[in-house]
Fold this sequence. Notes:
Layout: E1 3-4, H1 9-12, E2 25-27, E3 34-44, H2 50-59, E4 64-67, H3 82-89, E5 104-105, H4 128-138, H5 147-157, E6 159-161, H6 164-181, E7 185-187, E8 189-191, H7 217-223, E9 227-230, E10 232-239, E11 244-251, E12 256-266, H8 269-279, E13 297-304, E14 319-321, E15 329-333, H9 338-344, H10 349-357, E16 362-369, E17 376-380, E18 383-387, H11 392-411, E19 416-418, E20 427-428, H12 433-437, E21 447-449, E22 479-481, H13 496-510, E23 521-522
Parallel strand pairs: 1-23, 2-9, 3-4, 3-12, 4-9, 5-21, 12-22
Antiparallel strand pairs: 6-8, 7-14, 10-11, 11-12, 13-16, 13-19, 13-21, 14-15, 15-16, 17-18, 19-20
The protein binds flavin-adenine dinucleotide and iron/sulfur cluster.
Amino acid sequence: xxxxxxxxxxxxxxxxxxxxxxxxxxxxxxxxxxxxxxxxxxxxxxxxxxxxxxxxxxxxxxxxxxxxxxxxxxxxxxxxxxxxxxxxxxxxxxxxxxxxxxxxxxxxxxxxxxxxxxxxxxxxxxxxxxxxxxxxxxxxxxxxxxxxxxxxxxxxxxxxxxxxxxxxxxxxxxxxxxxxxxxxxxxxxxxxxxxxxxxxxxxxxxxxxxxxxxxxxxxxxxxxxxxxxxxxxxxxxxxxxxxxxxxxxxxxxxxxxxxxxxxxxxxxxxxxxxxxxxxxxxxxxxxxxxxxxxxxxxxxxxxxxxxxxxxxxxxxxxxxxxxxxxxxxxxxxxxxxxxxxxxxxxxxxxxxxxxxxxxxxxxxxxxxxxxxxxxxxxxxxxxxxxxxxxxxxxxxxxxxxxxxxxxxxxxxxxxxxxxxxxxxxxxxxxxxxxxxxxxxxxxxxxxxxxxxxxxxxxxxxxxxxxxxxxxxxxxxxxxxxxxxxxxxxxxxxxxxxxxxxxxxxxxxxxxxxxxxxxxxxxxxxxxxxxxxxxxxxx
Length: 538
Ligand SMILES: Cc1cc2nc3c(=O)[nH]c(=O)nc-3n(C[C@H](O)[C@H](O)[C@H](O)COP(=O)(O)OP(=O)(O)OC[C@H]3O[C@@H](n4cnc5c(N)ncnc54)[C@H](O)[C@@H]3O)c2cc1C
Ligand code: SF4
């Protein structure tokens, strides 16, 4: 078995450039009339779930049409200016927000590549205990054998480990604190090729280093004959209650595209897939459609140092600490350039100005909770409502996680620390007493979330899930779901390659092929210290 290098130069090198591919795009902004196309499979959505599937199926000989509501962006479009980029690459300019006991911003990407276009590039395999739990709890035993698909995805995307020189000073400071406390951590594995550490992964990588699926998988799907209709929003799936016959999309120019096909795969992400299915009267039989929304809520702690850190330089999410992963807490990098910091620092007025003037001396690190809370997605009066209440247990997990991040910054030598907790604006002199004493409620936290999951969850039992173990809608013969909505629970780690591995598995299933047995073994992979799934109880 060959071994694929994943350390050292593997991160910095460009590797073999893919041969240029002529985009096979039908631009919905130019389609004002009626179009009709025929294919074997229509894939709705080109994110982490849609694109790998489209590529594998096209290479397997199927005629594939992808529908994507957003535009196609090339690397030349990525200016590295967060304010500019967030308005065009993010859905609703990044202002998607949950309603509930604390509002949580839930950014989503919109364009060819979906949210992978604007994500941080972190790649963790699904922890084994989580896969085992899916087998026991949801009857998804088949998913335990994901290894060959992970290897394939990791090779396609060049998943390699960040090197110390690219990780930046922000990671160095955090690592120093973790080492002082004896907490386990490591540099992150990412889908990157020749990363220069420019620090703007979440606003479109301006050097084509981040291998988002719109840059990696979609061109390979085009090379194999697939076509993408951009700015074309799927609105209807024609079906007779047993089989789907076609997908109808409206285009940005007011036209219509009708895709006649023998298979339909819905891959619109965990917010839009349940809404699209519900509109068709599909997937609702178990009553679980739109429910079970997990989001891995997250927050960040900032700290002021005497030394220069310049968190704008280096990979923003380059280091992780999994010391508390069994408690449902993952600590992961969360850095970026000044205009991103200015948008996200939870301060106003003079304090905001004062901190921004000291931007070069500020470190920032994130924490993500493997949530037990669950939300609901539904359409109301033509608008999508995302209802999510953070429960008491998750709130207290946040409190513990924030205390630990503050301890870490104290150990690293911070002059002042800014926890995202109402009533504790600043900690000086390493005194965490006020934070420890403060009773924290959900609404006292400043939260964001990046990983919506579970709204069309897989469960082998038709009464408990929307799709079966092969991700097919229980009541339909030829409609599948390939995105984050099929993931049945929180997984405790960033989900993109879990979604891609499942998409690849689905493609092999649709092609009636056995799992690939010739994929190289990666030299190393991240194995976060998760010995039991935190979310087992839901
Ligand atoms: C800022 C940020 C950073 C992140 N960082 C990481 C990370 O480092 N590692 C990680 O593992 N995960 C990360 N994630 C999460 C990860 O990117 C997502 O979990 C993943 O992309 C979800 O894949 P998906 O296929 O479900 O949906 P998406 O990737 O969101 O793709 C869905 C696509 O469907 C399109 N669509 C929706 N409705 C329709 C319709 N009706 N018709 C046509 N098209 C439609 C959308 O426009 C979109 O392009 C991050 C997310 C964010 C927001
Ligand atoms: S750090 Fe810069 S070069 Fe590296 S992946 Fe992110 S945006 Fe691209």
